[in-house]
Specification:
Blueprint (H helix, E strand, L loop, with lengths): L7 H21 L4 H20 L12 H21 L6 H20 L10
Length: about 120
């Protein structure tokens, strides 16, 4: 069995959930200013990357899928470290969200099926 079992369409749908989570987090919780800034920056960057990637959720398809996945591979550990790097690790909810999505983001590199479904022209 291949270690890659997450369909690309499911990955694409989850990418929108990541953006929504990081956008909504500061709206639902009283976060420190640094956590709010980082959360909204992550939301903006991830949504832009989602809409620009050459995969089912992409509108403009400017970013190759492998670059998108590599960004998540590198970005995952950065999300995990963000609460300590930006000084908001005392906020338990923000730290839990950043660490959880960071681990998931990192792992998606290894478990996402790489074939891009194409529609007939």
């Amino acid at each position: 069995m291949s270690p890659r079992f997450v369909p690309l369409r499911a990955h694409a749908a989850a990418d929108f959930l990541v953006g929504a989570t990081f956008f909504g987090l500061p709206l639902l919780y009283d976060l420190p200013p640094a956590a709010t800034a980082v959360s909204w920056a992550v939301a903006a960057v991830h949504l832009a990357m989602t809409l620009l990637t050459d995969y089912p959720a992409g509108l403009l398809k400017l970013i190759p899928l492998e670059a998108h996945l590599t960004a998540e591979l590198v970005g995952g550990p950065l999300l995990v470290a963000a609460p300590w790097l930006a000084g908001f690790s005392a906020h338990r909810v923000a730290t839990a969200v950043f660490v959880t999505w960071g681990v998931i983001s990192f792992l998606t590199y290894f478990v996402t099926i790489r074939s891009v479904p194409r529609t007939a022209d």
